[in-house]
Fold Tyrosine decarboxylase.
Amino acid sequence: MGSLPLDASVQPLNPETFSGDSRAVVDFLTEYYRDVDKYPVRAADLEPGRLRKLLPEAAPEHGEPMEDVLEDVRRDILPGLTHWQSPSFFAFFPMNASAAGFAGEMLSAGLNVVPFMWAASPAAAELETVVVDWMGRLLGLPQRLLFSGGGGGVLQGSTCEAVVCTLAAARDRALGRLGHENIVKLVVYASDQTHVTFQKGARIVGIPPSNFRVVQTSSASGYGLTADAVRGVVDRDVARGLVPLYLCATVGTTGLGAADPVRELGEVARRHGMWLHVDAAYAGSAAICPEFQGYLDGAELADSVSMNPHKWFLTNADCCCLWVANPRELTSALSTDPEYLKNVGTNGTGTPAAIDYKDWQISLSRRFRAIKLWVVLRRYGAGGLRAHIRRHVAAAKWFERAVAADERFEVVVPRKFSLVCFRLRPSRFVGDDGEAVDAMNRELLAAVNASGQTFVTHFVVDGKFVIRLAVGGAMTEMRHVMDVWELLQGKADDVIHRYQLQG
């Protein structure tokens, strides 16, 4: 490899060097996206520690040309990646990238401001307040959750951060009334389909693990949380002298895409003085389409709502919108006022509406995420983003129909949004032997993923091993969904043939 001398003349932000290196990276990524469908979607046959064997044990003493660095990325890094932006990636949930998302990310990274206080970058802080209100209106959120209605929003890095912040706010609101020694009485409620993030968050803010209630759901409610089930659990806790603190309603659960009834749960929460959080991390993006806004009916009863534009909204990671009805409750739990910031604080600016976002999140430092989401909204417009959502929903509907029409398969739960959950159905070869049926589906999933042509993941519900196909990639078209269905059918033939021979 060549080398560049590292001496006093090096200027890290020299305009010519900046331009050359940036163009090299853009050209590299252009080539990558042009050929991404040629890579195995998931890195296969790689042993842990592979990369450590390929790379030197120490950092280089002298700088190297960007071309050499990118060649090493091509040779050593790309083969070890799971290609989340492949059009044949159907695992977990989508993590959208887009040209506009990348452009916004470049602006964020390039400007590299740290808008933790209004005074630290006024335009960055103010753009965030504008963008979260734009997003809230697109989703049809009630006015009380927007800055224009007395609430407000912030861009967090992830749902995990949003959960910890809202749990802390709920905790402090309750303990301000009860006294801090009563933290052992506070109880958090969620369904058995709710993301485990909420259990982790509850532990972080000091809620005893024994005070986290996992409320059971069933196929009768589409695996959504019912108000009756919550009432029963809450009433038992109240009778024991415990204090209901926080209830999570999920719109688009991780495993099955189930949707909890926000309004019904909101009424239960309000009756007991609980904080109601609506987690719409994945499916919230769909609410920009009028036909999906009904899933957020009752959001005016919520204390907070979150959704992740980095999942299904063409916004490169990381970006999570969190709205709260009462910002003061959030900032009371999270605010800091150190002496070294007072000389640049907003107290003396004459701008009482100024937002110090350091008080809306866990960390002090923060990225300029608002410009990324703003560029996406400006570049594609609401109409383009709705079309993006609807084409994935249409593809998922096609896939669901194809599965239902094949007697070897069954749809486990009706499709919601763009997630289809299915499996090989019990057959004459294994009867109703649940373990054997699960084994067949595990074999099918392993064979499909081992092909390198796609990547899908699984879930277990009611003891059944279920295969999930989450449609939502920025580059995914109907032909890719049709291709994965053809692959599944072929691998199903192989699995069933093996069981025929065994039978």
Q: What stands out?
A: Residues 188 and 212 are 5 Å apart (CA to CA). The chain has 15 helices and eleven strands.
